Amino acid sequence: MIRFDILTLFPEMFASVLGESILKRAVQAGLIEVRLFDFRDWAEGRHRQVDDVPYGGGDGMVLKPEPLFAAIRAVRAEGPESPVTLLTPQGRRLDQALVQELAARPRLILVCGRYAGVDERVRRHLVDEELSIGDYVLSGGELPALVVIEAVARLLPGVLGNQDSAAADSFPRRLEAPQYTRPLEFEGHAVPEVLVSGHHEAIRRWRKKESLRRTLERRPDLLEKYPPEGEEAALLEELAGEPGRG
Ligand SMILES: C[S@@+](CC[C@H](N)C(=O)[O-])C[C@H]1O[C@@H](n2cnc3c(N)ncnc32)[C@H](O)[C@@H]1O
């Protein structure tokens, strides 16, 4: 069971994603818990202002330090010790290896930025780690937080109906082999014969080889990072020997 504590100005954004399908079932089964905190609740003054103009000028508004410091401190104090993670395009890029690391924690505290971002003192003096979901800029950290929740939840025992489906997924080492379902023939395109042969060993080998082919074609960097050994090395040689290759 992992607890996600989310600090956001837009808690309503989470309801639809958490209220459907696998995440809904994971919440209902107590496999994950998601607590949402609107850090405007920690803002002071009549207007509960959470943002202000940037020193030095420039576009956009910057999230003020006081409400974030107060909110993060209050939330952090509840429950097991946990690093505070800021969602930011400047952070460590999320990949499946990092998702696995996060899935081993009992609790994640995710801070969602907005507008032009957060005051640097939050990042420097309160946040323990910074995480990006990719090299593009979104308008807020809410979608990134949902990406983290879903990617992490999939790895927790019992969340997926069949745990094997997470094990066979693409990443971190290889892309998954092509998949087919019925009908056997669609608009003249047939399913590879081996998949309907009933020959389990031949199917296993075909999948392994096609997974390598995909990885070689689309993500050769993964083969460099995780060099093939044994059967994989032999299959890779077979691929290199195919007409049109090598
Ligand atoms: C418009 S962005 C601010 C970007 C900031 N001015 C910068 O260049 O680093 C507003 C907020 O969206 C979130 N965000 C945007 N893109 C993201 C990404 N790729 N990964 C994680 N969070 C992101 C962050 O929380 C950020 O504070």
What can you see in these coordinates?
Helix content is 38%, strand content 17%. It is an alpha/beta fold. Strands 2-1-6-5-7 form a five-stranded parallel β-sheet, with helices on both faces. A two-stranded antiparallel ribbon has the order 3-4. Helix 4 packs across helix 6 and helix 8 packs across helix 10. It starts with a strand and ends in a 5-residue tail after the last helix. The model has no long low-confidence stretch (mean pLDDT 96). The structure holds S-adenosylmethionine. The site of S-adenosylmethionine has 20 residues, from strand 5.
Brief descriptors of the model:
two-stranded antiparallel ribbon, 246 residues, five-stranded parallel β-sheet, alpha/beta, binds S-adenosylmethionine
Structural class: alpha/beta
Mean pLDDT: 96
Total number of helical segments?
10
Radius of gyration from CA coordinates: 23 Å
Ligand roster = S-adenosylmethionine
Oligomer: single chain
Secondary-structure topology with pairs:
Blueprint: E1 2-8, H1 15-18, H2 21-28, E2 32-38, E3 51-52, E4 62-63, H3 65-77, E5 84-93, H4 96-103, E6 107-112, H5 120-125, E7 129-132, H6 142-153, H7 163-168, E8 185-186, E9 189-190, H8 200-218, H9 220-225, H10 230-241
Parallel strand pairs: 1-2, 1-6, 5-6, 5-7
Antiparallel strand pairs: 3-4, 8-9
Helix pairs in contact: 4-6, 8-10
Bound molecules: S-adenosylmethionine (SAM).
